[in-house]
């Protein structure tokens, strides 16, 4: 057995999420010149983030066991419905909620600024990040690890799906603070922790997150709502 997994069982859950947050903070900085985003630099920065976070997630793939077993058809149907509701929530509240103080806005990068070949490559990587990478890393961190760790620091003693009121409140609150769109993120965090409690399945939350991001990504692409990237 890997010694790190024994001594620091939290690390495989935290490392990919930490890599994602750090690289997200850096991508906007390294791709700017004179305060303006340089299109090719931003595309390269996002591509690098996708590679590095994917590598971290793969290195920490022992956590993927938490995705088993596969949910039932009914659970999957509910997960999809909640995912679509989440996407509608983010679209419906867009521009209607004042930002929190000190909250950073998204880069709002328009891929139309890129040459055609680079644009196609960027969109493919961006959708991979939005639809697969982010749901995997976030669900394993928020709904598999943190919900249980708040209940008991030896989180491995806590069955997946056991959610205390404190864990629900803290994870939903932190999830909100991690997003510029804090109100839809707060409601989303509560919906997904509720789905976790009901389904006892991290995979259900992953599927719901995937569906929500896919639907939202389609909306962004169709409407040019790049501020929601």
What does this structure look like?
By secondary structure, this protein is mostly helical. It has one domain (68-228). It contains 8 helices and 2 strands. Strands 1-2 form a two-stranded antiparallel ribbon. Strand 1 (32-33) and strand 2 form a beta hairpin. The radius of gyration is 18 Å and the shape is globular. It starts with a helix and ends in a 6-residue tail after the last helix.
Main attributes?
229 residues, mainly alpha, two-stranded antiparallel sheet, 68% helix, globular
Tell me about the largest β-sheet.
2 strands, antiparallel
How would you name the oligomeric state of the polypeptide chains in this document?
A: single chain
Q: Rg, please?
A: 18 Å
DSSP summary, beta strand count: 2
Q: What percent of the residues sit in helical stretches (DSSP H or I)?
A: 55-70%
Order of helices and strands: HHEEHHHHHH
- What is the number of helical segments per DSSP (H or I, 4+ residues)? 8
Shape: globular
Beta-strand fraction estimate = under 5%
Rounded mean pLDDT score: 95
Could you say which structural class the secondary elements and strand pairing correspond to?
mainly alpha
Instruction: Estimate nothing, just give the exact number of structural domains.
Output: 1
Going across the biggest sheet, name each strand in turn.
Answer: 1-2
Alpha carbon gap, first and last residue: 39 Å
List the helices and strands and how they pair.
Blueprint: H1 3-7, H2 11-30, E1 32-33, E2 36-37, H3 39-59, H4 73-92, H5 116-151, H6 165-177, H7 182-199, H8 202-223
